[in-house]
Amino acid sequence: MTTTATAAPARSPEGARRERRSGRAGRSRYERRRGRAGLAFVTPFMVVYALFMIVPIGYAVYQSLYTTKLIGGTTFSGFANYATVLQSGPFWDGVIRVVIFGAIQIPVMLAIAFFFATVFDLGIAKLGRVFRAIYFIPFAVPIVVSTLMWGFLFDPAYGPFNRFMGVLGFHNFNWLSNTFMIPSIIIIAIWEWTGYNSIILYTALKSVPRDVVEAAILDDTPLWRIILRIKLPLVRPAIIMLVFINVIGAMQLFVEPTILNNYQAGVVTNTWTPVIDIYSTSISNGEYQLGAAMAVVLAFVIIAISVASLAFRNRRRGF
Question: Distance between CA 71 and CA 73 in Å, rounded?
Answer without folding.
Answer: 6
